[in-house]
Amino acid sequence: MCVKDDKEMEKRFRKNKFYKKVLIFAWHGFFLSLTMSMIDFNTVFPSLITELTEVKVVFGLLYSIMLGAPLVFNIIFSHFMQYYPFKKKFLLIGIYVRSFSFLGMAVFTYIFGRSNPALVIFSFFFWVFLFSISGGFAGLAFTDIIGKLFRKEERGRVYAIKQFFSSLAALFGGSIVARIFSIEEFPLNYTYSLIVGFIGLFIAALAFWLIKEPPSEIGDKKRESLRFFLKRFLLS
Asked: Does position 84 have pLDDT exceeding 60, yes or no?
């Protein structure tokens, strides 16, 4: 009877611990989705680029950076991060750098949106590049952490719960964007939208401070040079 009670208590404790960890990722998913609504790449961001320039190829170039930069730099980041047992600091750095890219776009749009739109466009190549590679950097750490915190059979539930809260936030974010654009004109509408994104990412990162991350197994892995790593990667 006592053994049965102990097993029941252990099961209940594991379940409570699971939902506490899930809550952290649900919090992040909610505010990340809210943030991304502020710069939706199908509506808000193309509209902002159209306000700044009539050259259609600009959005294509920025979108290429957004998609391509993480693919290239994640190879370098993965080489760098594999020698560190704890990845939480890299996750937080990536999120905070990404949030500051929102702030940078907001500041340039507000100050130069009307007087010098070309400067805003040029600055966006830097901010979007920063936004993209920091997202990839954080993504690598995120994947490693979630793999260590949850068993394989638990991860599907984690992503499902996270997706549920992300969907709610997307609806909420869409209503915020609609409200901002109904009461403000360019450049204040985009400035406010980007600032909400900046604040949203900062709030999203708060939950990750509560994570008790277990160390990754590094073992006696010898550090190899980036040059050798890239050569081996390209030949594989």
From this structure: yes
